[in-house]
Amino acid sequence: MSNEEAPMSRMQIIVIGSALLAFAAAPALAEGIEVTGAWSRATVRGASVGVGYMTIDNETGATDTFTGAASDRADRAEIHESREQDGVMTMRAVPKGVEIKAGKRLELKPGGYHVMLIGLKSALLPGETVHVTLHFAKAGDVGADLQVEGFGAQGPANPPAATKPAAKEKR
């Protein structure tokens, strides 16, 4: 039997398995777009909407636009922005997306930009993970897993380790 036909040794299997686990635990990254700290809040049974928050860093060297999202857990997903105007909190869809300049950061967080999951197919339960696909004009699609936190959560229970500083994207 030649070396090409030899079965993998236990060490090779361990090394390959470890590499796959490390890759799975890494932040979502495609073409210089890095997504970290993705999370959501639990919803009650029968709720039709949910929300996704995260940090998106653009390290591509060029401006890109976050144009939308999709999830198999909802009929559709849209970028929305919440803001206070004249003492009243408002929310609106952002159909043209949000531009993220090269080297900048966009934070999707309560009271600001977020991904709105519309037409939920089932409740979002604490402890589960909801996969979303983020769409970018230049970088293409980037996957992210929202960690579902408890009702009323204001952030992820286990925030990610700090990443290199990047300036916040202005609204």
Keywords:
171 residues, mainly beta, Immunoglobulin-like, twelve-stranded mixed beta sheet, 1 helix, globular, disordered C terminus, PCuAC_sf, LpqE-like
Layout of helices and strands, plus pairs?
Elements (H helix, E strand, L loop, with lengths): L9 H16 L2 E3 L2 E9 L7 E10 L5 E7 L3 E12 L2 E6 L4 E3 L3 E5 L4 E8 L8 E8 L3 E10 L17 E2 L3
Parallel strand pairs: 2-11, 8-12
Antiparallel strand pairs: 1-2, 2-3, 3-8, 3-9, 4-7, 4-10, 5-6, 5-9, 10-11
Shape: globular
The helix/strand series, from N terminus to C terminus, equals HEEEEEEEEEEEE
The count of helical stretches stands at 1
Portion of residues in beta strands equals over 45%
CATH homologous superfamily - what is it?
PCu(A)C copper chaperone
CATH topology: Immunoglobulin-like
Using DSSP, what is the number of strands?
12
Q: End-to-end distance, in Å?
A: 64 Å
Radius of gyration: 19 Å
Mean pLDDT: 83
Helix content: under 10%
Region (Disordered): 150-171
InterPro entries: LpqE-like (IPR007410), Lxx211020-like (IPR058248), PCuAC_sf (IPR036182)
Organism: Rhodoblastus sphagnicola
Protein name: Copper chaperone PCu(A)C
